[in-house]
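Budget justification note: compute hours in this period were largely spent on complex prediction jobs such as the one shown. Inputs:
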Amino acid sequence: MKKNLIEVKNLEKYFETSAGLFSRKKSTIKAVDGISFEIPFGESLGLVGQSGCGKTTTARALCLLDEKTSGEVNFYNSDTKNMESIDNLNEEELKSFRRNIQMIFQDPYESLNPRWNIKDIILEPLNIHNIGSLSEREDAVVEILKTVGLTPPENYLPRYPHELSGGQRQRVSIARTLIMKPKFVVCDEPTSMLDVSIRISIMDLMLNLANDLEVSYLYITHDLAVARYMCNRIAVMFNGKIVEIAETEELLKNPIHPYTKRLISSIPVPDPTYERVVYDIDYTELDNIIATDTGNIGMVDIGNEHFVATHDVKGIL
Amino acid sequence: MQENILEVNNLNMHYETISGEVAAVKDITFHVKKGESFGLVGESGCGKTSVAMSLVQLQADNAKISSGSIKLDGQELIGLSENELRSVRWDGISIVFQGAMNAWNPVIKIGEQIREAIREHYPNNTKLQNIEKIKELFEMVGLDESIIDRFPHELSGGMKQRAVIALALSCNPKLVIADEPTTALDVVIQDQILNEIKKVQDLLGLSLIYISHDIAVIAEMTERMAVMYAGRIVESGPTKDIFANPKHSYTRALLESTPSVVGDKVKLNSLDGEPPSLIDSIEGCSFAPRCPNKTISCNSSLKSELVEVSPEHFVDVCNAESLNT
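Corresponding output:
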């Protein structure tokens, strides 16, 4: 039995919007609408879907950057060796939780402070959490720069973000994240702004680090090809709900949900002789079914730990 | 033999900056046949967009075309006056810019903005004729005709991009340049737009230059392609040929670093290093510092040349003999 690092049950995040400045009409946007998943130790889960489907909102709720509307998030506490709900953390535990859960953002140009040099950027989390003496912290920074392949570290420490290329900046982001020795890292499209030749080196770096440091990723992307490379399992999200979740190769070879099929078939294939399968599905109809489904979607297990949302499985299975 | 709609020969373009000349387009030669879709692929900063801008001569003020020739349907474009160029742009070559969907004027209705372009080139058309034309275009790109009376902010990204394509087609251009038309879009929307472009291309027999950093998109969209690196075309030829039999190490590296959702999961190879700065003049092969198959002769200052390895398939090499290995 695999040990879970994080368990999410029926997570919901709603946003209230009003029609206008003086309007009393309020409407609710269900950005994340009752999703459940778990991530075992050392495994990575890909969260895949169109823009606006709630991927980033899920991530922000998990990291406690936004307060969730309802649902349960349990995280493995290494001190008590138990799964503990993140709702009941006291201040001390909250700090340790935040140390263990980190984020890498999409845009390496905007997520690094332009006025700080690389050393200060990577030192900051250590300073905030007051870890080690100053000299220990500085040693840790040098060490982590080597780990992420920015060598020799002396060359990078005094430099500023604008002096680095996109790939190097993303390495700095990764260094800043991993210096806390987190157990769980949420990656929000960390390679989508990078060039193809640089992208693979960053993805390989993250995979190696996951192996060496036993980090689990929640990897958010709209590109299934990237998710395939990075993740053990993939969850497909649509309109705030997870419609299908399975082991990566199983999902790609045997997609059940029409939206998953559509997503897979919309990825261009780097082979001019390959003819993509076009699924004959009424997508407007599908949008309607899913959008009007008022919750209570269950997931059925069709074997091999492959789960599909039940709402239109009836017609398809 | 198909006729060429566009012939570019030995085009050189550089930007004059405070720190020196940046050679963005170096000695580029290619052609586009009538009704063909031609792909230009490469990483950011390799000069793809600079080539596109040179073709319509909309490059920035500090950009200078130092030599070369651009012939559209036999007409030389270099050296034309601004007035002459006005009739070439949109009528001869139209361009779908990168992120063009954000270039709509927010306070003017979409239909009116397209009508403005048509009016400029067909001053004798009646308003009704123009509106009919726009309806026709919208149908082609899969937009409802009610969009004519909408403002840009009322449309989604995909719809705006479709409208941009309609705009690019509005003056019946001989050649359309699509510069990363789907980069800012979601995969599903990207797929729809790509299908739309393909459909329109078939319907109108359009000649198309498709620019992208994504070699998978190029594989789907084009019949012939060129790979650019550091301002040069390093390999060009029929798309199928290049994918089946890539000759240049950079092309191979691009193919090996592109993940796919079909086939078996393969280990992807990364490419060390970064593209060179174009401000320094580069002796010999510009890819040599990153090349996994580098030999001693690569570091020399041999001048590279395009070698035809199979019909229409050219590779830029310093040492033609190395191709046999």
